[in-house]
Batch of 4 targets.
Target 1
Amino acid sequence: MKVSPEVEKALTQAGGRNFYGKPNYRFAWSGQETQLISNGKSYEHFRVCAEDCWLLMKWEGPEFWGSEEEWNANNIELPSGLYTAGPYPRQGRYRVVRTLKKAVIKGDVMEFEYPAPDLVFVREMFPLIRDFLDLTTEEKSKLLFTREEEAKAKLAHDFGASRENYRGIATAKQVQDRTEAIERFLHDPVRVKQALELTKRRPI
């Protein structure tokens, strides 16, 4: 499965190219995207995503994966001498940064749909993803902290508003109950007469 040339071109223009001239970002169908991984006896191509869906891939240079010495030390398998995550990516490699799917409600059941990449995604969603990924780890932490605090503030505001709404509803209900009680009283001649007699007996 392939993305339309128009969408590919728009993504490359928005994401730029690396120093090898390849796109920094590209779309891939999960069933066709694999990485060379050790199976314990040899290297084999494994899917990078088990779901059947479109992926947004980002190219990362060798420095992203650490030094070759660190890679080898962390991935070595003995006694085969193979590396769990495959050979060190000296020319960098692509990684999955997003699966393209959306939740939809059908009846009472939530299901996922897997739309194909389009220009709307590239123009509206991709810049947000790209700009977030371009942040440093510290900047990402600050941004996520800020969003979390804003979410907490909104939750507190909504909770407070719901309490005020509830109090308003409760007050209205109390007024209605009191009004109905007065109307029942006025429709009872005996109780009205008794109340008037009690009023006359009170000393001035």
Note: The mean pLDDT is 84.
Target 2
Amino acid sequence: MSRSRPESFSEINILGNPLGIETTQGAPMRYARILSIGLVATVAFVWSAAAVENAHELAGYCQSLERGANGDGRHLYIPRTREALTCWGYMQAMQDLSVLADEEGHRIMGACPPEQTMTLQLIHSFVRYARAHGGELQGNAVVAVFRALREAYPCRAKHGD
């Protein structure tokens, strides 16, 4: 018995509210922003997963970026090397993930960098962590970055929670 499948879809409908997002004014923009952050993070993770074998390798890439970075503030120049660009892209994805929170407002990553934190500051935090925890860097790069950012930017309990 064979089943036929349509060759293409012209429309995808999502019924209900699967993400639990309120449908008040401004919600479509928030929904679009959440989806775009998720898409960017997913693409970055897929690309980075192929480019970074482990946390030790990412730390080396980020150290090379630190050595070659020039400037500060609004004008920062990073080396145009595979290593530096991989570190930069990876840490930008981490920065995007760091703002995601659950329904109760708790950051999913467990780190709370201030809104004005720059990507280079996150890289410095990760490299500092990598130097202090060198023996723990053979595992997954994402886990090491999460730990580094939790250590550098711990979330403070609000209102005694």
Note: The longest helix spans residues 27-51.
Target 3
Amino acid sequence: MALKEVLIDELRDMYSAENQLVKALPKLAKGAHDATLKKLFTDHLEETKGQVIRLRQVFENLGEKPTGQHCNGMEGVVEEGADALEKDEEGASFDSGLVGAALRTEHYEIAGYNACISMAKTLGLGNVVTLLTANLNEEVAAEKKITVTAKPILQQAAKEPEEEKKPKSGKEKYSAKKSKDDEKAAARNM
């Protein structure tokens, strides 16, 4: 497989990822308790829509269609955000879970854009690099905004009293079992 084909696969992955976020961000905004966090999700939704448009321009430059690949990685990250929305936490502790999910999302996107930009630079695709760099810069800025917004939320969450442990849901039990399985599998390679 030639590098350009790898780049196109990676770009389709990013296009799928951004489209998944267009669907997920309104749910995070609606679920957030903190007004600043809620606004941050809403504002980033508009940025994400612009990123989708830029990715379409990238595909036009390459003479390719943007669809054809589903981003399983982002699907998993979005699922973590959905899990955070289902947690039984309240107040700042609840929003702390959303912050964690949001930061994982931004880091996933940052890594994806860095990979695509490196490939596009190697192929001498200056227009593609410019468009992707604009998306990357927005993701880096979003990560910084989340980190700044998180500070008072985390400080407030640290002051909240510990709650009595409740029985685990079926989903939580399944997740705990998978975590133990992961640990056992990794132990064989340690």
Note: The mean pLDDT is 92.
Target 4
Amino acid sequence: MNIISLIIQLISGAVGGNVAGAAMKENSLGTLGNSIAGIVGGGLGGTVLQMVLGSAAAGGGSMDLTSILSNVAGGGVGGAILMAIIGIIKNKMAKANGIVALTSTKVTSNSEQLTEQI
């Protein structure tokens, strides 16, 4: 893999992460979060695609149309998938913590009533 392939994968990963964030608003991490997750996912996705398809995915060192498209596809899909996974995990954790936070907020705001009842 050369540096040009890696740059293409990282950029397309950032784009893929933001496209996935726009498509799944409930799992979006915000523009910066989508971009960071997409960049990491793009690098990982491109690397996995290269390992599966061999050096043909990287164009064997050359930058022809096929290698550029495979780098864009691998990076974009990898970025979108990683952003979606992180977004889903974030939402599950927020829901689990949100119930606890809501309960503690209610107890705190009604502390006088709670004290009177005890």
Note: The chain has one domain: 3-87.
